[in-house]
Amino acid sequence: MSILVVGSVALDHVETSFGSVEEAVGGSAVFFSAAASMLAPVQMVGVVGSDYPIEKLDFLARRGVDLSGIETAEGESFRWKGRYSYDLNDRTTIWTQLGVFAHFKPSIPEHFRDARTVFLGNIDPVLQLDVLDQVRNPELVAADTMNFWIDGSRDPLLKMLERVDILMVNDGEARQLADEPNLLKAARWIQRHGPEWVVVKKGEHGAVLFGRDTVFFVPAYPLEDVFDPTGAGDAFAGGFFGYLGRSGGRSDDDFRRAMVYGSVLGSYAVEQFSVDRLKTLTADEVNERIRQFRDLTAFDLEVEAAPNG
Amino acid sequence: MSILVVGSVALDHVETSFGSVEEAVGGSAVFFSAAASMLAPVQMVGVVGSDYPIEKLDFLARRGVDLSGIETAEGESFRWKGRYSYDLNDRTTIWTQLGVFAHFKPSIPEHFRDARTVFLGNIDPVLQLDVLDQVRNPELVAADTMNFWIDGSRDPLLKMLERVDILMVNDGEARQLADEPNLLKAARWIQRHGPEWVVVKKGEHGAVLFGRDTVFFVPAYPLEDVFDPTGAGDAFAGGFFGYLGRSGGRSDDDFRRAMVYGSVLGSYAVEQFSVDRLKTLTADEVNERIRQFRDLTAFDLEVEAAPNG
């Protein structure tokens, strides 16, 4: 089952303690698609400027991503420059040039409008709502958002939430949205405002899935060398929805498995700059790491009566 | 199998957004023993001042803790006052009165010297070494430490590490000790300096066990109301070693199960001030939460070939 993703297509400038990269393909829709296309067909909607090296997205097309929703607008592409702290836990934005992304108004191609699985990347919630108006009968709608919209566009954001099945945010965003420091309470608040499922990404601390009656944790894969954390969250989302797109299942067990796929794809994304690692990734490598995730949390415990309780 | 613990016995003053408590029993040896004694007999070594309300430790004696290693010294007890931020993630020490703890020199009673499992709470590494010299033939030695000793007593700390099987610290301490921001590399560094096992406690983000060929994650139990985080790490240690003391096993699987017991006991510790919740805790409640931990990380995933890999 094919997945429709709407989000940014960018050129990233990134500095880490391991080196730097300029004019590298990035953006939420790109990282999402690079990951999701390992598992299911993807339909991508976004905008680039006339200066965008569009051939750099050819690897996506070769992997079954339909790029016909990428509009080329007169002007400069969305560019961003960020620098990571030595321990990679803090990111400073050096500059942001929105370019044509500032006037992005997603137009969903006719042949994408029957998409059953829709991922609304982190864009203006007004535009996220507009996308939903263009899609005829989606079966599973997920959205990302960020502090900028939580602060400045709360009303459309809450309207958007009502139409979403899964909100996928980081822990700071979940707490900010619900104005609640306790993550479990924050997730329950979000669920009361629409989404049946809340996925909270916590970077090196893994991710948590909140369902109606379920909480499920998946750790981050322990890597000796995290090279560039950019795009890890979007690759997580791509792995998550790629798995759901492939399996077609919607049970609690399916969502648990999707979390593991998300964590696996996110872990590969950070091993090199930009989408470089996702480009060369093979199905065997995905499966190998899926197997390793089992060992990371598996335990065998028969509960017996404690002698001194 | 009985567990010997050496650590602080304190009177805590704690402020959280839920309220405050004064002159409450606390200290690493107390939280450890309150948790471990749910699972195995404990022998406790520490010092209190002549002003200590020693009857407040009666609940430990009733649960099989041998308190004969608690020395009463002339002077004031160790007192500490701390305040937690609204979200409970930051703790400020308002004041510390070391009192008799400043001159603590652990003397291990003769009938404790055959202990096979020894937990060295967070005290001067010189004293931790001294304790090990007094114990005849320990089979499993674990230690905690903190930034103060990592900064100021590095040489004795490294000597102590050589004689320890398990180092149990928080993530900041692991990184500081190894001077390495990557947690996996930091754990490997620590393992090269002595301990076969490293347990890294990450508070609300759970805990990680690093063995020779294994990495195992256990999440923190998701609580709607964390009341007072004081002692959570020591209760974790108590649950961990209490399980190992009870089971007697030393395999990778035993250590994984110990991590789950640690997380369960730590989660109960934070539900009320001081050791209040651990006091009333029953074996059934421990078992109930152990069962819930299975659901928190269990997934069932047969790896198949990806169609688009």
How many separate domains make up the residues of chain A? 1
Q: SSE order of chain A in H/E notation?
A: EEEHEHEEEEHEHHEHHEEEHHHH
Largest interface: A-B, 63 and 62 residues
Strand content of chain A: 15-25%
Which fold name is given in CATH as the topology of chain A? UDP-N-acetylmuramoyl-L-alanine:D-glutamate ligase
Q: How much helix is in the residues of chain A?
A: 25-40%
**The top level CATH class name of chain A:** Alpha Beta
Radius of gyration of chain A: 19 Å
CATH architecture group name of chain A: 3-Layer(aba) Sandwich
> What would you call the quaternary organization?
homodimer
Distance between the amino and carboxyl termini of chain A: 52 Å
Number of strands of chain A: 13
For the largest sheet of chain A, list the strands in their spatial order.
5-4-1-8-9-10-11-12-13
Average pLDDT score of chain A:
94
* Main structural class of chain A: alpha/beta
Q: CATH H level of chain A: which superfamily?
A: Ribokinase
Extract low-pLDDT stretches of chain A.
none
Overall 3D shape of chain A: globular
Count of discrete alpha- or pi-helical segments spanning 4 or more residues of chain A: 11
Main β-sheet of chain A, in a few words? 9 strands, mixed
